[in-house]
Amino acid sequence: MFNIFDASGSRVRRDITAEELAALPQAEQEIAPRYIAAALDDEEAADAVREAERVLRQCQRDEDAAILAAQSDPAQDRIDALRAVIAANQ
Description:
mainly alpha, rod-shaped, 71% helix, 0% strand
């Protein structure tokens, strides 16, 4: 029996030969290439989504670290802020 998926059943095989496709019944020979192409496109899209989610999680970790770092700085009171402005203008 012809199977487009690898042994694990989770990924589309990349080694499908023309002989395997030719051995299929005529009706399946017509739709198999389109089905395989669609399955490959689906895998690529799913891989892109997983990569984007990985990048998003890293950005969220970076944001959390920046928020924690900003919160750990002591609050500047009004007098210190005024002194900093005066010092910057001199």
